[in-house]
Every structure is written in C-alpha cells, then in structure tokens.
C-alpha cells in the first residue's frame, strides 16, 4: 500500500517512530532539505517522480499518497 511506504519514508527522513496519515509534514519539522531527500526516496523506492509543488500542496501522508496513486493510474494504459 502506498501510504505505508510513504509513512515509512517520512518516519525515516523525519527521524520519527510514528507518523499519522493526517500529520502535516511542516508541523513535524519538515523543511526543504528533508523534502528533497523524500523526493529522492519516492523516485528510488516507489518509482515515481513527485514535483516539489505537489509536496507543498500535499503535506500529509494521506494526500501525497493519493497523489502518487493518481500518477500511477495515469501512467497505466
């Protein structure tokens, strides 16, 4: 499930044991350097490129997971 993978990446990069699906990235201490690391992890681990603007527009695990899933569906013929 995408949300589980996203949550694992966020926990690792934000150095937190647990993150809820509706926790805000920025409220958790997220900043641009961490965001770039997460972008790289999304590409490497999930095989999806997430533009920086989408990271700002979707600052929760739930919302960025929905975005990633929509991109995966759009890429599938």
Descriptive report:
The chain has one domain: ACP-like (Non-ribosomal Peptide Synthetase Peptidyl Carrier Protein, Chain A, Orthogonal Bundle), CATH 1.10.1200. It has helices at residues 2-14, 32-46, 52-57, 61-75. It has 77 residues and is an all-alpha fold.
Percent of sequence in beta strands? under 5%
Give unreliable regions as ranges: none
Q: Overall 3D geometry?
A: globular
**CATH homologous superfamily?**
ACP-like
Q: Report the structural category.
A: mainly alpha
Report helical residue fraction: 55-70%
Distance between the termini: 20 Å
* Number of alpha- plus pi-helical segments: 4
The CATH class designation is Mainly Alpha
* Whole-number mean pLDDT: 94
Please write the string of helix (H) and strand (E) elements: HHHH
How large is the radius of gyration? 11 Å
CATH fold node name: Non-ribosomal Peptide Synthetase Peptidyl Carrier Protein, Chain A
């Amino acid at each position: 499930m995408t949300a589980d993978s996203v949550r694992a990446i966020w926990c690792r990069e934000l150095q937190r044991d647990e993150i809820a699906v509706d926790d805000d990235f920025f409220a958790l201490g997220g900043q641009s350097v961490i965001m770039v690391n997460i972008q790289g992890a999304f590409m490497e681990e999930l095989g999806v490129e997430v533009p920086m603007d989408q990271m700002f527009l979707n600052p929760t695990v739930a919302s960025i997971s929905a975005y990633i899933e929509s991109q995966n569906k759009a890429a599938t013929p």
